Amino acid sequence: MFITLAYVVLFLVCCYGLFRIDQKSSSLSKPVFIALFTGGLIGLSLHLVDSDTSKQIIDWFDIVGNGYVNLLKLVAIPLIFISILSAINKLENSAGMGKMSLTIVGCMLFLVMTAGFIGLLTAKTLGLDASAFSHLQSTLTDDDVTRTAAVSLPKLITSLIPTNLFLDLTGARSVSVIGIVIFTLLAGVALLKVKKEAPEEGKKLSAGINAMQIWVMKMVRIVIALTPYGVMALMAKVFSTYRLEQFASLLGFITACYLAVLMMFIVHGLLLLLAGKNPVQYYKTVWPALTFAFVSRSSAASIPLAITAQEKCGVPNTVANIAASFGSSMGQNGCAGIYPAIMVAMIAPTVGIDPLSLPFLAAMLPAIALGSIGVAGVGGGGTFAALIVLSTLNFPVALVGIFIAIEPVVDMARTALNVNGSMMSGVLTSRLLDREDAQSQERVSLN
């Protein structure tokens, strides 16, 4: 009990130190980085105490860590709803909404297929082979396979369309966030029509929406200010939970995953350069969102941070909200791109297929795109994305079960990349729409 109390006091002292640093810092990046480092040290030190005491200490830390994650999930839905509705409220017409949404989805599918190619290339370069893991036991169940057996693109798309708003507000479906976004877009278009056809009622609705946005944003900023403390608690848990011997036999696969994720972050940086953005400044701005995604392993909980980070990068509010919301359940670069592609690269040589041949890439990359939507339709993250891709290619799926044991270790990097992919979709969409608007204005001036 004394050791537990000592660690709780130590944690509170560290929280006070972070508070003092946060007061002097102009951004979240510095206190979040310090929290990441401090939490890691606390987590490593917990290996020196017995397992029961360590678990008891982490239970106390979870009040801050899991509490912060829960608060972010709590404000995510009101933020998405009111921010998109408020942005539409400022529009004159609804003509650009469809184009904007399709551009965001197009960017997401392009990025996830690029991530798939990077994962394939990385595994091929490292020489990973599925036969090297054949001695390990698969933990895949028949139920896991059954849940992906009936997946088809029409069913996946249909599953995105909401039928009960109140059901989605509870998060009951794996695609609840997307369902709320679709409902908000519908409500926004209706709002524009009310403002046009009934101006007096439209003014009242508009004023109410503006007031509600100010209120919700105050709530969101209060929660985001807690980021350093939540990150420190979550990081302590991560470093206290995993031991090297748990995944030593799968170190090659883990290395390939992390290396591929790093390569995809570099690709994102190159795309930023092509879009006229400074990659260093971008990553500095989005650092708190990426850090939280890494330690929390939750794309949905990262939505408020991802929206705020995009807005700081100059992305319009509506684009930022839709990109972050859609990105929590589709087009995930890590879970649906890199993870299944590495498994494909490991299995392909065992069945006599060159994974880098053009005919195979032409079949695999669309399967990756399908799987990225399938993650939303089926649920279960990278495991089910891999099942969808392997099943689509008629590859054996037993390998997926071997890596379930170490999935949490890989999932931290995957989630950070997922969130960055959603933010990149917002940045690229904003740039593409700006360029298109500029070209339209130029054509008008020439005429």
UniProtKB/TrEMBL annotation:
<feature type="transmembrane region" description="Helical">
    <location>
        <begin position="336"/>
        <end position="353"/>
    </location>
</feature>
<dbReference type="InterPro" id="IPR036458">
    <property type="entry name" value="Na:dicarbo_symporter_sf"/>
</dbReference>
<feature type="transmembrane region" description="Helical">
    <location>
        <begin position="360"/>
        <end position="378"/>
    </location>
</feature>
<dbReference type="GO" id="GO:0015184">
    <property type="term" value="F:L-cystine transmembrane transporter activity"/>
</dbReference>
<dbReference type="GO" id="GO:0015293">
    <property type="term" value="F:symporter activity"/>
</dbReference>
<feature type="transmembrane region" description="Helical">
    <location>
        <begin position="247"/>
        <end position="274"/>
    </location>
</feature>
<dbReference type="InterPro" id="IPR001991">
    <property type="entry name" value="Na-dicarboxylate_symporter"/>
</dbReference>
<feature type="transmembrane region" description="Helical">
    <location>
        <begin position="286"/>
        <end position="307"/>
    </location>
</feature>
<feature type="transmembrane region" description="Helical">
    <location>
        <begin position="6"/>
        <end position="21"/>
    </location>
</feature>
<comment type="similarity">
    <text>Belongs to the dicarboxylate/amino acid:cation symporter (DAACS) (TC 2.A.23) family.</text>
</comment>
<feature type="transmembrane region" description="Helical">
    <location>
        <begin position="68"/>
        <end position="88"/>
    </location>
</feature>
<feature type="transmembrane region" description="Helical">
    <location>
        <begin position="215"/>
        <end position="235"/>
    </location>
</feature>
<dbReference type="GO" id="GO:0005886">
    <property type="term" value="C:plasma membrane"/>
</dbReference>
<dbReference type="Pfam" id="PF00375">
    <property type="entry name" value="SDF"/>
</dbReference>
<feature type="transmembrane region" description="Helical">
    <location>
        <begin position="175"/>
        <end position="194"/>
    </location>
</feature>
<keyword id="KW-0472">Membrane</keyword>
<keyword id="KW-1133">Transmembrane helix</keyword>
<feature type="transmembrane region" description="Helical">
    <location>
        <begin position="28"/>
        <end position="48"/>
    </location>
</feature>
<protein>
    <submittedName>
        <fullName>L-cystine transporter tcyP</fullName>
    </submittedName>
</protein>
<feature type="transmembrane region" description="Helical">
    <location>
        <begin position="384"/>
        <end position="406"/>
    </location>
</feature>
<keyword id="KW-0812">Transmembrane</keyword>
<keyword id="KW-0813">Transport</keyword>
<feature type="transmembrane region" description="Helical">
    <location>
        <begin position="100"/>
        <end position="121"/>
    </location>
</feature>
